[in-house]
Amino acid sequence: MRAPAVAIVAAFACGIALGLYSPFASIGSSPVRLSLCFAVCGAFAVVALILLRSEKLRASAATSLLCWLVLGVTSSAIAQQPLPTNHVTRLLDRNQLSLKTPLRWHGVLRDEPSRLPWGTGYDIELCAVDYQGVSIPVAGGLRISFTQHAPTDTTVLPPIHAGDAIDVIAEAKRPPFFRDEGAFDRRAYLASQDIDLIATLRSPKLLQKASANSSQNISARISRLRSHLRDEIDSLFADDPQSAATLRAMLLGDRSFVDRDESIAFQKTGVFHILVVAGLHVGALAALIFWTSRKLRLTPTLTILFVVVVLAAYVAVVEVRAPVLRATLMACAVVLGGFFYRRLDLLNSAALAALAILIARPLAIRDSSFQLSFVAIGCIAGLAIPWLAATVQPYARALRGWRDTTRDAGHEPRAAQFRLDIRATLRWITSRSPARAAIAIQDSLAGTLAITFLAWELLTLTFVLQLGMLPLMAANFHRIALSSPAVNLAAVPVTGIIVPWGFLTLVAALIWPPLGKLLAAPLAILTATLIRAVAWFAALPHWSYRVPTPPLWLTILFFALAIAIATVARLNATNPSLNRRLTLRILSATLIAAAVLVAAFPFPPTHAAGQLESTILDVGQGDSIFLVSPHGKTMLIDGGGAFRGFPGREEHTGTDPGEEAVSPYLWSRGFKEIDIVALTHAHQDHLGGLTAILENFKVEELWIGREVDSRALAQLEVVAKERGTQIKHEIRGRTFSWDGVEGQFLWPEIAATEIAPSAKNNDSLVLRLKFGDRILLFPGDAEKAVERSILSENDESDLHADILKIGHHGSKNSTTPDFLSAVNPQIAIISSGEGNPYGHPSAEVLDRLQTAGVRTLRTDTNGAIHILTDGERIEVTCFVACPAPTGSAGTLPASFRSVLARPTQ
User: What is the spatial distance between Cα 62 and Cα 52, in angstroms, rounded to a whole number?
Assistant: First the structure.
């Protein structure tokens, strides 16, 4: 086997994947089971050695792979062992620690204070917390941020550095995340970085240095170097902050200052990998190091040491992530292979790198960065290189030294014939040119042809990468970038210049600042040109679009085809045959057909036919409700709210629930279009996420209540018009029939054409839906004044609803006793954010609901709440387990059924 590491890492990875599921996941918690796994591994290893000595190679190889499979299961189980008993998350889960008040935290600063667009960030390794008069030992990570309220803010922060012991008083909380299907789990992402709590530093006086780091260990020195290099980039490009932000990302892996618009532009054009330190960047740095060692005329041994040491230092300075580790390990393998005069197989080298990473961190297999990184190198090694080797590369090699006839015999027949044709053609052209210019013309034409071959190879690599990574890109980022091959054709070579030039500039600036400034000028121009070119391509219409998550069976089929193609191609390279070439063509055609299915997504979305679906999504402190009619028509009421940035720095926006919660949920179910988007009122926690919805989906109609003199609403309407969405205004008294569902607007009463000076809760659309015998009521943020008006203008029988979405996130200003009595719901749902600063839902409203015997569900504790009715029976499921029905009645009527939810995530 030419690439044995591929089979080994495949078996090991399969074992890890098995270990993630029950009953294998519980192995790590049982010493007996763990010992049994090691015993099985040892038995397989012994059997493999016996079979090897008996020269039964295939049986020995199969047994060895079984050994690696069991090792994978074992390592996965070990990696999933419970956290220490004093870990802060375990203390919180057991209610041994409360975060409802500020606490004094003790710990050690992990890294240098990081400068952020809005202020300063600190990552602290916790060691203790003062709670109820006692200092409790704790383990875990705390991330604190201090916000400067204006660019001119001159607040002086305490001079602390990595390794210093510090005390801080802060009201910490668990990182928020959206409990919806398909949504990005920010809490798990931060936990993978050992960040378990986050907090805001209210005043610099609350952060104090307990003791300085006297040891100045290697970790602290690296942290200071990292901080110094980032500051150096900011200083060199002070007049061009956008280029500085991009170079911080490209050279040092810090994307904190990359604007959202720029980030989206790179995503739309399929070149976001340029902003992520990975193989391209490490390869460019390795080439620069190797070139430097050659210029210094170092011996082979010193060259290897130089390359390995510098790359190891670079990994320590930037993010220690799978793409960086993979590229660094492979670069070191190539250098070492050259020392021993060995040309390493790329696929085998990548497999060895993957194996090393998985042995150190088995759960890295779940990280999208790990998956994308090794799928990318697999596409290059398994698909692109064999295809290029069989097509263009023989001709590219034949072009080298084309004048030397003695080299013709060293090429295969078609390449040798190509050399003859090149010589004949170029001599014919130059025979009709001036004699003095003949050599120059020949060299120019041959050089142009060589550049054409190089461009074709780069275009092929880009195309194969985009093709091979398509299912993972669709599943993780839900974007198809049609312009990617063309943009990468220009962006990758430019990046190959920017990265080594950037490192030379940094080194020069550290040694002699004037030289650094001199080198920074052309680098800034080149970087700015790259940014503008990407932005121009990103602005082209219809070259980038969003897609739902591809079906699992299609993803499995796609990668099975890709593996089959790579296998047949390698076999054909060593033993060409007509049958294998035909098989390759058939498999390639099938793979392209599968890629078209991923990109086009012609599959119908999932919905319960003949039933009305209502999903109250978890969008934090906001509202978003997704409705599906009995025949598949869709309506979205509100989209949650996007944080608008910090005073004076609004360009740095934060979490967008429309992009990170609502859209992923719809994509997870296969929706690409929405028939109706209804905005209850123009407050940010309802409106903010709708811009992403209008951009990500084809929306037929946008329903708005009262017009408001609001910049955010005006921008939303502009986006709607640009996307071809029809805007309608709805007011009290209007009714409609929606695919078998009867709808009625109970509010607002103001004429739709009247423009209010500002948005108010009492401008909310209040919508009542009836399907069969079941009724749902969605009052937005309407408060008690509106509730009184609705009560006075309607009979109680016209207000009853089985399902009530509680108004204004459970505020005490809504859901008055009279209104609750008139509606008389069986189930109440509150949409509020976990640990929100407003105290929603209020204890008063919760008591009122409990007294009325209403079953109450909340998005901050239950996540997304899914309600399904056929007009008689109602089923309720939650993303986090729904609580059992309680109340004065004890249980719901027989027509209601509560279904246990998905496991807590």
Answer: 11
Q: Edge to edge, what strands does the sheet with 673-679 contain? A: 726-729, 698-704, 673-679, 634-637, 625-628, 612-616, 865-869, 874-878, 896-898
Could you report the per-residue pLDDT of 17-70, keeping only the tens digit for each? Answer: 888 886 666 665 667 777 888 888 889 889 989 888 888 888 999 999 999 999
3-state secondary structure of 198: strand
Contact 442, 430 (CB under 8 A): yes
Q: What are phi and psi of 557, to 5 degrees?
A: -60, -45
C-alpha pair distances (Å), 817 with each of 102, 190, 512, 841, 851: 35, 42, 75, 15, 10
- Segments in 644-754 forming alpha helices (H): 657, 663-668, 684-687, 690-696, 711-722
Distance CA 226, CA 112 (A): 8
How many other C-beta atoms lie within 10 A of the C-beta of residue 637? 23
Which H or E run includes 544? strand 544-546
Quick count: other Cβ atoms within 10 Å of Cβ 45?
17
**Gyration radius of the chain over CA positions:** 31
Q: What gap in Å lies between CA 501 and CA 507, rounded to an integer? A: 10
Report, at the CATH architecture level, how domain 88-216 is classified.
Beta Barrel (2.40)
Domain boundaries, the chain: 4-79, 88-216, 224-367+478-542, 391-477, 552-600, 612-644+653-898
Burial of 735 (0-12, 13-18, 19+ CB in 10 A): exposed
Distance of alpha carbon 508 from alpha carbon 501, whole angstroms: 10
pTM to 2 decimal places: 0.89
**Residue whose structure tokens are 């902003």:** 275
What Å distances lie between residue 661 and 223, 640, 696, CA to CA?
34, 9, 12
Element (H, E) at 829: strand 827-830
CA atoms within 13 A on the CB side of 672: 14
Cis check for the bond before 514: say yes or no (omega within 30 of 0).
no
pLDDT tens for 446-490 read 889 989 988 888 888 888 988 999 999 999 999 999 999 889 888
Q: What tokens does 130 get? A: 């003062």
Neighbouring residues of 84: CB distance < 8 A, sequence distance ≥ 6: 90, 139
> How many helices (H) and strands (E) in the chain?
31, 28
Q: How many of the other CB atoms lie within 10 Å of CB of 659?
A: 22
Which numeric CATH code is attached to 612-644+653-898?
3.60.15.10
Peptide bond into 748 cis (omega under 30): yes
C-beta of residue 143 within 8 angstroms of C-beta of residue 123:
yes
Q: 525 φ, ψ to 5°?
A: -65, -45
* The two structure tokens encoding residue 131: 């709670």
